[in-house]
Design goal:
108 residues; elongated; single chain; two-stranded antiparallel ribbon; 10 strands; mainly beta
Amino acid sequence: MKFKIKKNDTVKVITGKEKGKTGKVRSVNYKNNMVIVEGLNMVTKHVKRTSESAGTRFKKEAPLHISNVALWNAETSEIIKVGFQRVADEKGKVRSVRVNKKTQQPID
């Protein structure tokens, strides 16, 4: 299955408690359809005290479902709807490329 969101894309959250916020994708979990976005969906994790170290709390990003984010164009400040086109390169090899559905321009 092709995914419309990739690592290092800028995305906007379209539903949930972080709705309207934008950020850069740190990682994509293709198996579970989840993305981790820098600085969004922060949760507090607790580490239990051991004999060698004291217990601590720290904040980290929790994953968001891929359907809750959309590709974001910062220059035009609008959401990009993503499609795929099959393109042949100079050697004749056919590959799939992400394109903006509105302008039909390649994204990558």
